[in-house]
Amino acid sequence: MSWIRESTFTWFQFLATQVLKAGHIPKHVAFIMDGNRRYATKNGMQKIQGHSKGFDKFAETLQWCRELGIEEVTFYAFSIENFKRKQEEVNGLFNLAEQKFQKLLDEKNTARKHGLCVRIIGNLLLLPESIQKLIAEAMIFTKDHNKAFLNIAFAYTSRDEITNSIKDVIKGVEGGDILLEDIDEHLISNCLYTNNSQNPDLLIRTSGEVRFSDFLMWQISNTCIYFSNILWPEFNVWDFLNAIFYYQRCYSDIQKIMKIQNVKPAIKNGRQSAYIDKLRNERQMLLETIYPSNM
């Protein structure tokens, strides 16, 4: 299935989206896509087939977000904790990831047409080299696109993200780029993998689990949380629109306050700003090392 789909809404679904658009639409929605394995068991499938169905739902959900005018979407695709699963399942997930990232690269014209910027957030060096190269190529190719932003958390946990952020801060102090007094939540926030993104307005988790699974723990302190009992591959457009309505109902009286609270802290001085720029350049150079432009 293509990453970027054309609208498949019925006239009634389209009408429902227009009604919701009269209210406040979140700019950034995050998803914990839970329930693929239980869906496979429920339907007598192999686990990898459940994950494949989960990707199909991911692509469908991305299309719904585009239809509703949501500017940025983040999906939790592969936790570092998933490395602890049986090797057969991990290998199957990696094979599936290779297929899907290659599919994205095969659709460069479509990605360019829709201005889709793809960012993979996570510890890429934990992944097989073949996947690293596909991810780096996708991020390099789409880095200047600015109509829609897709973040995929792959080889990710918040603990790892925050740990690496602290290491980058320490490196900056030891290298003389920043001083001890420059260390604050503003600096740490801008050293995270999500440094190019605003914090999510809405987080949706499927499958009935009521926990965050170490996902965006720094970023969601003021985020609206919606838990659904539906397994991820069974999540449908009405479930999605209900989550948007829940967001609108929860925040209808305090939209302005939440807009202020949920903005990522700004850089406060020139040393911080210069170091963040340096860090971003280093991360871009790492991608170009993984996937040189002359390949």
Explain what the structure shows:
Strands 3-4-2-1-5-6 form a six-stranded parallel beta sheet, sandwiched between helices. The mean pLDDT is 91. 49% of the residues lie in helices and 12% in strands. The two termini are 27 Å apart. The chain is α/β, with parallel strands linked by helices and 295 residues long. The protein has eleven helices and six strands. α3 (47-68) packs parallel to α4 (87-106). It is globular and about 60 Å long.
Secondary structure layout plus pairing:
Blueprint: H1 11-21, E1 28-32, H2 36-42, H3 47-68, E2 72-79, H4 87-106, H5 108-114, E3 116-121, H6 129-142, E4 148-156, H7 158-174, H8 185-189, E5 202-205, E6 224-227, H9 237-251, H10 255-261, H11 270-290
Parallel strand pairs: 1-2, 1-5, 2-4, 3-4, 5-6
Helix pairs in contact: 1-9, 2-3, 3-4, 4-6, 6-11
What is the overall shape?
globular
Contiguous helical run count: 11
Major β-sheet, in short? 6 strands, parallel
Mean pLDDT rating? 91
